[in-house]
Write a structure and sequence with these properties.
By secondary structure, the protein is of the alpha+beta class. Helices cover 37% and strands 14% of the residues. It binds flavin mononucleotide. The site of flavin mononucleotide has 11 residues, from strand 5.
């Protein structure tokens, strides 16, 4: 594509381009990825680094449509925002961590999730990390016991959209050499601006696009 967005997902890209062109995908084709493809993606997650090699993750792969609908129904942010891509993506992977005696569990699970999302992109799949949910509302849907934690949900499937990249803070505002340099570091205003630009654009798109699936999207 002329603006640098790949039309074939991340297939065949060098690593930096792969990382740069991964997008959060919220519209999916209905055809599910094969189990072989799913296992490749999960294998990449398995090889993520973890503190003292504790590997505190477990992946609950949800393909059943009624369970995905239940996830979409229960996963809400501030009781208002819902994520309809939980129902419309053919697969949802819940990353479940074991926090017992492990203060780095969330970091480890997030690293596994990053591997998973990049591996998926490299195979032409789209993903979206979803963190806006209440643990206890989702536990019964996924059968997760109280001693484990649902760190994130990742929707997965072949993309039915090719979104423009949301704004990124320029690299020079993200790097200090040797010691932290407050004059170079992006501040709260730049971060909030990026978030606002992203949210406003999403709001406008949500208004002009026809709605599909259950409920509004945040
Ligand atoms: C910790 C975390 C939580 C997120 N939670 C949600 C969410 O609840 N719903 C959603 O649609 N996207 C969610 N996202 C996706 C972000 O909105 C997205 O990564 C960000 O806007 C940058 O866009 P990009 O992934 O296309 O680069 C989350 C991402 C992260 C890393």
């Amino acid at each position: 594509m002329s603006d640098g967005r790949p039309s074939d997902g991340g297939v065949g890209l060098d690593f930096t381009t792969l990382a740069r062109t991964r997008r959060s995908i919220r519209r999916y084709r209905p055809d599910p990825p094969s189990e072989d493809v799913l296992l490749q993606v999960l294998e990449a997650a398995r090889w993520a680094p973890s503190a003292v090699n504790s590997q505190p993750w477990h992946f609950v792969v949800v393909r059943d449509a009624s369970r995905r609908r239940a996830l979409a129904d229960k996963a809400r942010l501030f009781r208002v925002f819902r994520w309809r891509h939980l129902a419309t993506a053919p697969v949802v992977v819940a990353i479940v961590g074991d926090p017992r005696g492990n203060r780095w569990m969330t970091v480890d699970c997030a690293l596994a999730g990053a591997n998973l999302m990049l591996a998926a992109h490299s195979l032409g799949l789209g993903t979206c990390w979803i963190g806006g949910f209440d643990q206890d509302a989702l536990r019964p849907v996924l059968g997760v016991p109280p001693e484990r934690e649902i760190v994130g949900l990742v929707t997965l499937g072949y993309p039915a959209e090719n979104p423009k990249p949301p704004p990124r803070i320029p690299l020079e505002r993200l790097i200090s050499w040797e010691v932290f340099d407050p004059s170079r570091a992006a501040g709260r205003l730049e971060r909030v601006t990026c978030s606002c630009l992203y949210s406003v654009r999403k709001r406008i798109l949500a208004m002009v696009r026809p709605r599909r699936g259950p409920g509004p999207v945040a």
